[in-house]
Amino acid sequence: MTDRVGNAAAPAVEMRGIVKRFPGVVANNGIDFAVRPGEIHALLGENGAGKTTLMNILFGLYHPDEGEIRVNGRPVRFDNARDAVRAGLAMVHQHFMLIPRFTVAENVILGAEGPGLALDREAARERVAELSAQYGLDVDPEAVVATLPVGMQQRVEILRALYQGGKTLILDEPTALLTPQEVDELYSVLNRLRESGDTIIFITHKLREVAAISDRVTVIRRGQTVGTRETAETTASQLAELMVGRAVSLRVDRPPAHPGEAVLVADDLHLTGSQGRAALNGVSFELRRGEILGICGVEGNGQAELIEVLSGLRRPQRGRVLLKDQDVTATGPNRRRRMGLSYIPEDRHGRGLVLPFTLTENVLLGNVEDPPFSLGGRIDYPGIRTLTQRLMRAFDVRAPAPETPAAALSGGNQQKLIIARELQREPDALLAVQPTRGLDVGAIEFVHKQLVAERDKGRGVLLISFDLDEVMDLSDRILVLWEGRIVGDFPGGRVTRTELGLLMGGRSLDEHAPAAD
Amino acid sequence: MSMLPPPTSGDALPPANRMFGALPTVLSSLLAIAVALFAGAIVLALSGENPIPAFEALFSGAFGGQREIAETLVMATPLILGGLAFAVASRAGLFNIGIEGQMVVGGLCAGLVAAWDPGLAAVIHLPLAVLAGMVAGGFWGFVPGFLKAKTGAHEVITTIMLNYLAYRISTVVIGQEALPLVNPALQATQPAVDAARLPRLLEGTRLHAGILIALVAALAVWFLLYRTVFGYKIRTVGLSPGAAAFAGISWGRTIALAMLLSGLLAGLGGTVDALGLQGRYYNITLGLGFTSIAVGLVGRNTPFGVILAAVLFGALAAGATKMQNTAGISRDIVYVLLAFVILSVSGLAVVQQLRQAKRLTARARARTRDRAAEDAGDPMVEPPPPPRTI
Predict the structure, then answer these.
(1) Which among A334, A356, A399 has CB closest to B11?
(2) Are the Cβ atoms of B371 and A56 closer than 8 angstroms?
(3) CA dist A348 → A441, B8, B240, B292 (Å)
(4) Which 3 state secondary structure label does DSSP give A227?
(5) Closest Cβ opposite residue A374 in set B229, B236, B381
(6) Does A403 contact B at CB distance below 8 Å?
(7) Cβ–Cβ of A53/B375 closer than 8 Å?
(8) Which residues of A398-423 are buried (b: 16+ CB within 10 A; e: fewer)?
(9) What is the reported pLDDT for B331?
């Protein structure tokens, strides 16, 4: 063992010519990636571009087929995550890997208990408090993780990374679950880390985040590095073009709406959630024809319950749901579907599709009992197969045949299939929940265009999304859902991220906004 | 959910081909059989027997001639129906371990109706007896399905309990001295009257019309699962309860009806055994219902696979008799060999299903967490999950 620091001028992390093949796929096809010590380096790419594979290689979870990795100038070969941690790398996962019933300190020392059986809790607690203070993380080591808000839990993950001795932190899509205010707070934490000399790799597919936090950015597309830029010297549209490989419109092209009569009405909905807490606490709104009504909010504020009540999966304890002026509160999903309510569910794999089923069989989902899909209990497979082919063409679902299992499709193509199925019924109202979650920029563009097109056909589109940008880009009217209540109602385009963010966090607009948008 | 993951192998194929979903696995199944026979050979050798003539006897006993083949089919008949019963329940995501009990009540009721002699014509009496067996088995299957739908009571527990209940009821009914339809001394029902017997298909063999019933049932199950709305609902519920809810398919209703259908098939299995092979219902536990589980697993819960697996098990049973008679190998060794085959073949099926389930969950995980799932290149193919660390 020589010096711990290594060559000071060398990149903190350098990956050269990384190639990783999976059967039938080249996930990384010659990626070059170098991070200077003490910088925040964004790794930008679409879903499926190879970002996560690259980071899994860096973190020792995969072996590269070709290429070289250097940490602080020294070539390394990691066999597992422990080796990577020993070399000073630390990963903050997209989905937190915390044990909810443990305290912060217990979670932080998990996996780094040190040799021997004895666990020096007191020392650990002090070290955690010390680190928390040092980086201004403001986390109470004694707090039970389950009681902490999401933003705090993420800081616990960061603390754990620091506790393990991480000098280079890898953050995988760290803002996915945060409110705009929590994102701002994360940015300041990252800035403090940078000031104290830590290096940060920030994986994202959002251009806004690249501009907001990074010093440099490396763009990868289809498994290859397409460029590294100084963030200050580039623009969002340049980066988007690098990322997608063609010029993309970052804004949704949306002519003014012409709202008509109400098509779906929620009237004072009340529902007790799974923990006995009120999940819906008097939700009322009207969705009109020819408008996109966006509902934003942080996950877990009643969205799931609202969707279940609107789609007919659950009955509210109080209140009514009206569909085309008819009270449908007591009806199930099929009846509502027949009356003209289509539903794009948030969970493609668990709800929207049966993954082992063929595309044809998935087109049957929710339709199987209605003619012409079946007659007298017998399914018209040849007819459905033709319909499936037609939908695949019309909605650009890329798959070899209608007999392909849905599991073999990419996320974007799966979502297109669901949208095709739901729209072919020509609904009066469309319930779109997180319709672009996990999709790449091209597919997102497609989905957004479809939603706008439905609106322009005079249909009511209810958009429920945790992606604030999506809600703001698409909606003609925006509602904010917080703790089962509608706490804000704005015309689209007349409200700022900061205002929405405050309401989403349960605060009022009178409070002083912590940071400008 | 059952202890086993829902079978998925056949589902990757288009519906028309799915009846033959077992074919690609035939090779590996043959390998498993070879392994079992080898293990059996070791046991034979250890007990001082020469395995080679033993296996010759086994094979010729199963396929050596018309009579032997007929005997194989006779043994396979109730197993086809039992295997179908298991397959239908599995497709709905349930583990029907109660096929044995459903066969017992089916056979008992069919035997009683067949022993009753009001002088009906065969076209009426035989269907009546068969119907009695099916209804009884169906009821015995419906009860645990209904309980699961209403209360969530696990079907593995309830069907096992219902197995015991079926044995006891059978013993009590057969033991009734006052009941003219039973023969307590013989521990059986009175013989089926001619009008209620399944006709023999081939003189000089025991082959009876039950095999035709079983084959028609396999075709019917295939049609039901892959061509009808009800079958679609069963498969949707079994593969994805969430998607079923989205589609407005009632989970409880579907699983209760699937268990009814499963029990009905099992009851039919008990019925053909009583009315075709035995000529009466015997109050003996043959364990056919448990072998049926292995048949369903080995047959990958596809109707055609079940037929193949049932014929394999039938061949072993038929061959074992000959092996015992001509090679003079004790009954116990024969059962050891049978057990090896069941263990090896169904063990293989379980391993493959577990691997499949693991692949599916890994794939799902790869999708949601590891976005590498759709990494560059051909978007149709998924990379494998990351290797396990630590």
Answers:
(1) A356
(2) no
(3) 18, 19, 11, 36
(4) strand
(5) B229
(6) yes
(7) yes
(8) ebeebbbbbbbbbbbbbbbbbbbbbb
(9) 64
Q: Which of the following CATH numbers is that of domain B9-369: 3.40.50, 1.20.120, 1.10.3470, 1.10.10?
A: 1.10.3470
Q: Range with the lowest mean pLDDT among A88-92, A156-160, A207-211, B370-374?
A: B370-374
Residues B212-233: tens digit of each pLDDT: 999 999 999 999 999 999 999 9
- Residues A355-377, mean pLDDT to the nearest whole number: 93
**Domains of chain B: which residue ranges?**
9-369
Q: Mutate one of B229, B234, B261, B370 to test the A interface: name it (highest A CB count within 10 A).
A: B229
Q: Count of A–B CB contacts within 8 Å?
A: 188
Q: Which of A26, A347, A356 sits opposite B12 (nearest CB)?
A: A356
Q: A48 CA to chain B: closest CA distance, Å?
A: 4
* CA–CA gap between residue B241 and residue B361 (Å, rounded): 16
Query: Which residue of A23, A223, A351 is in closest CB contact with B375?
Result: A223
pLDDT on residue A21: 85
Q: What is the pLDDT of residue B363?
A: 52
Q: Give chain A positions within 8 Å (CB) of B361.
A: none
Per-residue pLDDT of A242-269, as tens digits, reads 888 877 766 777 888 889 999 999 999 9
Model confidence, pTM:
0.76
% of residues, chain A, pLDDT over 70: 93
Burial of A377 by CB count in 10 Å (0-12 exposed, 13-18 middle, 19+ buried)? middle
Q: What residues of A are in contact with residue B21 (Cβ under 8 Å)?
A: none
For residue A367, give the chain B residue with the closest CA. Answer: B247
> How confident is the model over B131-147, as a mean pLDDT?
98
Token output for A271? 């529902």
Show the tokens assigned to A9.
Answer: 């001028």
What is the per-residue pLDDT across A90-118, written as a single tens digit (0 to 9) for each? 888 766 678 888 888 888 887 666 655 56
CB A309 within 8 A of CB A317: no
> How far apart (Å, rounded) are the C-alpha atoms in residues B210 and B217?
10
Between the two ends of chain A, the Cα-to-Cα distance in Å is 48
